[in-house]
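A quick aside before the break. I want you to see a complete sequence-to-structure record at least once, exactly as it would be stored in a machine-readable document. Don't worry about memorizing anything.
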Amino acid sequence: MATAYMCHLCQKTFNRSFNLKRHLDDIHSMASSGDGINTFTCARCGKQFNRKYNFTRHEESCTRRQTKKQNGSQSQHQIEERVGQLETQKKQFEREVTEEIARLKQHPNNILQVICVTNNDNYLDMLTSKIGDFNLAIDYIKECALSDLSGDCRLIEKIYLDPEQKQFFFMDPKKSNVTYYNEQKEQIVEAKDTFGRKLANNLQNSYLKSINFLINRNLNARASPNKFLEDYDVQTWNTHIYNLSDTCYQRRMIGQLKIPTK
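That is the input. The structure line, written in tokens, reads:
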């Protein structure tokens, strides 16, 4: 009868001493405890096992749990850091708006009275000075930004074409050129398409500044970002800003504006 070799740790038998030795090395290797039994200790949690297979499974599971926990902590830290940055930007923006309003109040003969047109007109600031209330101005621009072409025309006419004030720019009888005044109070005659690009660029910059303010205000109030998307329809807003770069869109806008002819 062949000699049987039994493992003293798990009582498994082998018909060759070589197989028993390999079993001990593969399954029960590692540090030995005080009673002579080999044990496997998890370096992460300290739990011990007397079989290598069980130890290996536990170690993999323990590693996954710890990695997931670390990643979760990092993500939360990144979110808190980003919120802090946005809150700082919001405070800076509000300070700039307050300073701009104060500056406009100190200079009554500004571009709103003369109705000049420049390459960097900020309609949020101009409208705030015109109606005297920032919250009303931001709400008005929000409605225009979500109303596509009709909203653009409504905002431009609100800024430049107040029927209660003297008109400072006109379109020629052929409707090919626009006459207006620049920031130096110089009269400029410009092709209709070029003038349309100028207005579209000002609209894009004003809409971007306005939507950034609303996003920051939402974060500061700790409102749900998902709810904010439903309330203000950011996708529609961004698509509108993108459309303002299109030449055909700009021509349609100029065509619908109630610019007097002269």
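Two observations worth writing down. Strands lie at 5-6, 13-14, 40-41, 48-49, 170-171, 177-181, 187-191. The chain has ten helices and seven strands. We'll return to this after the break.
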